[in-house]
Amino acid sequence: QLQLVESGGGLVQPGGSLRLSCAASGFTFDDFAIGWFRQAPGKEREGVSCISSSGGSPNYADSVKGRFTISRDSAKNTVYLQMHSLKPEDTAVYYCAADSLGYCLGYDYWGQGTQVTVSS
């Protein structure tokens, strides 16, 4: 059974850092691209970042460029989203998703989400 489980969310002050994890199981991890998305209350879901199956050329939303870094660890079947210089507008539920084509183009499977709250 394919499963994506996010963790690492929480409450952090503005300017702080968090590292989110997306642990994958039930499929060949190296064949899939993994993306991070977020959804704030009352807003549409937006793409944050994605890393292809090869791990090359990750992409980022303009709003997080220079602050967030995505990476993947094949040994652990896990994708990370390192977030620095967090802002209140980063507050949202963060989801990871898997793309079976490997190119960050469309997502077949989704995790349950982890809450990130940036507040003083």
Chart the SSEs and their pairings.
Layout lengths: L2 E5 L2 E3 L5 E8 L7 E7 L6 E6 L7 E2 L7 E6 L4 E6 L8 E8 L9 E2 L3 E5 L2
Parallel strand pairs: 2-11
Antiparallel strand pairs: 1-3, 3-8, 4-5, 4-9, 5-6, 7-8, 9-10, 9-11
Strand content: over 45%
| Helix/strand order, N-terminal first | EEEEEEEEEEE
| DSSP helix fraction | under 10%
Mean pLDDT: 95
Q: Tell me the radius of gyration.
A: 13 Å
| Separation of the first and last Cα atoms | 40 Å
Structure description:
The protein is mainly beta and 120 residues long. Helix content is 0%, strand content 48%. The strands form 2 sheets. Strands 2, 4, 5, 6, 9, 10 and 11 form a 7-stranded mixed β-sheet that branches. A 4-stranded antiparallel β-sheet has the order 1-3-8-7, with no helix packed on it.
Brief synopsis:
The chain has no helices and 11 strands. By secondary structure, it is mainly β.
Give structural attributes.
4-stranded antiparallel sheet, 7-stranded mixed sheet, 0% helix, 120 residues, mainly beta, 11 strands
